[in-house]
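Ticket #4471: structure export looks truncated?
Reporter: QA, pipeline team
Priority: medium

Steps to reproduce: submit the single chain below to the structure queue and open the exported record.
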Amino acid sequence: MKATVLLYHDVVRAGQFTASGFQSPDANIYKLDEDEFGQHLQRIGQAARRKMMLVSQAADDALMITFDDGGASAIAPIAGMLEQRGWRGHFFITTDYIGKPGFLTPAELRQLRARGHIVGSHSCSHPFRIHTLSEAELDREWSESVRILEQILGEPVTTASIPGGFYGDNVVRAAARAGIRDLFTSEPVRRVEDREGCRLFGRFSIQRATPREHAAALAAGDLWPHLRQRLLWDAKKVLKAVGGPVWLEVRKRLLAKRAG
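Actual output as written to the record:
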């Protein structure tokens, strides 16, 4: 089975980065202006060769859209803009932040679900290097976040996305122990794997600087944008493994410079 899954985060009015989600130079590169996001959706709709669907409906060659972190922009404007096209999305929630400024409230989570969107876990605390956590810490990140969401929504939560990009089998096993059956990574691949009791979906990340035509080409299934993200991902993986703390510090400085 294959699937093309687009990964977005927050959508805000021009430059208003503090309105939704996490606050940092790193987080801001994933926050799209509202008008630009509308253009993304228009071009995706024009270019896609199949309709947008939910993971619960997913068949081979599915096209899906997801939003990480649980920022307040999920309700307005994101959900409304999707619904105008007859689409529904997947919203993955960092449960330690529910109800905090810039994040969704329990009532808004229930509203999202009632409107037909999928609400899933994005861990409790959004650990930066989730694959380095102990087994007990991983169990808390997944099991507690699932418990909180199930209590809010009044139904089982079996869908989640992994924070921070990189992961290991230990992360997947802990998610499966928490009852997660469909798990989204940030790895830019279309192949869907069955691993450790979960279906693993890769995703193609969209940043503020990503041209709308690139997002449309991904949705259309064009080879080059898929390959380009894969090559960049593999290079980043090597740098992170070899550079360790040095790579993290260089990355932090680059992001701060970009934000300034």
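Status: closed, not a bug. The export was complete when the record was re-opened. Leaving a note from the reviewer for reference: Residues 3-222 form a domain with the TIM Barrel fold (CATH 3.20.20.370).
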